[in-house]
Model the fold of this input.
Amino acid sequence: MVLGRPSAVARIVYRTVKGIVFREFAELVASRHGEAVWDAMVQEVGVPSAGAYTTVGTYPFEELAALLRALSRHTGVGQAELLQSFGEHLFGALARRYPFAVAGHADLFPFLMSIDGVVHVEVRKLYPEAELPTFHVRVSDGVLTMEYRSARPLASLAQGLLRGAIAHWGGGFTLRRTDVGACDGTAADFELSRA
Amino acid sequence: MSADPREEELALLRRILARERAAREHAENLLEGKSSDLYATLGRLRGVIEELDAARRKAELHSAAKGLFLADMSHELRTPLNAVIGYAEMIAEDPAGPSVAADARRIVSASRGLLDLINNVLEYSRAESGRLELQLEPVDLATVVEEAITIVAPMALEVGVSVQRHGGDGPEGFVVVCDVVCLRRILLNLLSNAIKHTPGGAIVVTTHREADDFSITVADTGRGMDAAQLETLFEPFQQVRREVGMRFASSGLGMSITRRLVLLLGGRIDVQSAVGQGTTVTVVLPCAGPEGGGEE
Done:
């Protein structure tokens, strides 16, 4: 995954998001709601990039947040739900773009356990400036617990990504989310177990 | 009043196109930057690869030379040992025979040669591993040179080589701070090497002092060396093969040890040679001893 990581100095957080997230967000909006909606959103929020995103770039998190608010206004759907839906779409897009990250994992749990130690290591090689969230994973009695911690309030996006991962490996899992800390979307524990 | 839908669609398409163009331009700029970084990194990597390659080739050559050295050394050890055993058996078979004394002398000679060989190998090993500890003390240079000449005199006499000492254009004798054992070893190595290559010729040892340094020059009228031989002169294990068949056994380590010792003493060594015109080796050392241990 390519989203946010808590800075060592909590008060100085440079929150950026990789361009592929913006590109996929734009693709999703355009395909589901039309180019005109995306165009209107971009004009409304007046973001510095003017909506000209490229997968190899990096952009401020605030642009994503502003676009998300705009989409919520246009669709009347809550931001959390939109993020989850986007996360599900994003997982498929990432899996197609970076097949090496999912290949070799016969099951969901081994993949999730490899995110921090393998996938994010590779992401950092490709994008040294990426600010990645942490996913501490433990498995006990057949239940996988993933602790999501980020500088960005994107727990719903993580939840959507997990749903996308579950679908990628054929489903059959239940997912439970517990917000922790300030309950502002920057920290959540996810529990996955076979249905 | 509503705008013309076609105009609106056209405007939308223009904005989409403008965004895509801006995104492409941004991506191109980023990729140009990445490309420059990769180019620079590639250049550095090529440099590192070349260095590693050179180091590997050197290590392979060294390893191959060591292999040859071991093979030759086995031969060099076996020859005198066989002589010792053979002559000892002859004495055992006929203890009162007429050639007992001559056989005993041959045993002694072969044993000494063997001991020299083993000493050289051990000394090279110590010098190479940096385990030599210098004992610096005032040394009278003329005395050390005379002693060395006296030690090699029998060897020189055997092959008809004259060895003389010249005081050079400096004082006849002077005291320097040095490790006398190392200095003697250097002199003996240079002299015995010169004697081996100068059958029937002459060797002149010259000492000279200039400013804070002193020099010892050993010049011979021997067979000399070509450029290829000069290039590998100080490489360990390179001498044995080309010296096979010479009158005196050689470990092939003498010049290598000499260079290591000179460096340990904080000095330098220079060799001038031409085939058929002899060889001149000059060792320059600091009069006050090496600074900070005198390593390379």
In short: The CA atoms of residues 4 and 131 of chain A lie 4 Å apart. The interface with chain B takes residues 35-36, 39, 42-43, 50-57 of chain A (CB under 8 Å).
